[in-house]
User: What shape does this take?
Amino acid sequence: MTEQDCLFCKIVSGEVPADIVRESDRTIAFRDINPQAPTHVLVIPREHHPTAAALAAADGELLAQVVREAREVAVADGVEEAGYRVVFNTGPGAGQTVFHVHAHVLGGRGLGWPPG
Assistant: This one.
């Protein structure tokens, strides 16, 4: 997939609408269109990196910023104290379907283990 075909790059550019809940200079957070919990927000870098592993290799500080923003989403949605989950699906075998790295922030209900 090229960056021009990337759904999340289109959200970053404003070409595709999203329910944006947070923005920083390097990240955007928006509600998942198919939520799996009362809080289900995706945090993405504005730059295109296909997976969490690729982002970690290219820019560890940006990966850290994505995680910090995930915490801010949890605080804003009121799930930080009760607990929340941050998930990076990396690769098709892990369930990644959009190849622009994204952190799922899930909370607001009990989350069993193991997942899925």
Summary: Residues 25 and 35 are 25 Å apart (CA to CA). The helical segments are 7-13, 52-58, 60-76. The mean pLDDT is 95.
